[in-house]
Amino acid sequence: MVDDEPNISELLGTALRFVGYDVRTAGDAGQALAVAESFRPDLVVLDVMLPDLDGFQVCHRLRGLLPQIRVVFLTARNQAADAVTGLTDAGGDEYIRKPFDLDELIARVALVLRRGAVARPRRLHVADLVLDQDTYDVNRDDRPLSLSPTEFRLLNYLMLNTGRVVSKEQIRDQVWQYDFAGEVGVVENYISYLRRKLGDPPLIRTVRGVGYQLRSPRPGAV
């Protein structure tokens, strides 16, 4: 979410997180490109009028960085020519004018993501660990593992983010999907359950003060 008006970024970021998206915000083009490079988002809601570069230029640079990224322009400009520029020359996927309806914007974000969705693998692999999203089977070293529904969702989320460090708050919000409003201690408990069931060598690394990372074990790890 890129906008130089903090109140808009905060409003939209909160609303998109509430419906299940993982969101980062930026207030100018420089921040947007830096965040995109590290976060690698599927979609950017991008204000056209930024203090350093205009959104059309940012869109071109984002396409160079992440060719499959989707861009929804958000702007106070009301000229038809601007919409044409955003959707054709700059390569945007949607163009929404301010003031906007929040529910409509969220619906358009979902529509653009569906329109540009790339099929995700239904079987996830990390080292000798295999998770099948269709059958709910989990195997490690050809040994079937019995997981509870919550443990399965937790492992699925970690495997979808293999190599990335995800915070306890991200895990809580994505795995429990806002149905649980308690402390992040529940995440620590379920990580512990999952580690015991996955066995050795360990696949889940604790990054102190940040969160957890699922990765292939290092040679010789126990």
UniProtKB/TrEMBL annotation:
DNA-binding region, residues: 121-216
User: Domain named Response regulatory: which ranges?
Assistant: 1-113
MF term (GO), any = phosphorelay response regulator activity
Q: What positions are modified (4-aspartylphosphate)? A: 47
Q: For this UniProt entry, which residues form the secretion signal? A: none
Q: Where is the OmpR/PhoB-type domain?
A: 121-216
- Could you tell me the Gene Ontology terms of the biological process aspect for this record? regulation of DNA-templated transcription
Which UniProt keyword terms apply here?
A: DNA-binding, Phosphoprotein, Transcription, Transcription regulation, Two-component regulatory system
Q: Does the keyword DNA-binding apply?
A: yes
Short name of any one Pfam family annotated for the protein: Trans_reg_C
Do you know which InterPro entries this protein is assigned to? CheY-like_superfamily, OmpR/PhoB-type_DNA-bd, Sig_transdc_resp-reg_receiver, WalR-like, WH-like_DNA-bd_sf
Q: Name one GO cellular component term.
A: protein-DNA complex
* CDD domains from the UniProt entry: trans_reg_C
Q: Which PANTHER family match?
A: REGULATOR OF RPOS, TRANSCRIPTIONAL REGULATORY PROTEIN TCRX-RELATED
Identification of the protein by name? Two-component system OmpR family response regulator
Organism expressing this protein natively: Actinoplanes xinjiangensis
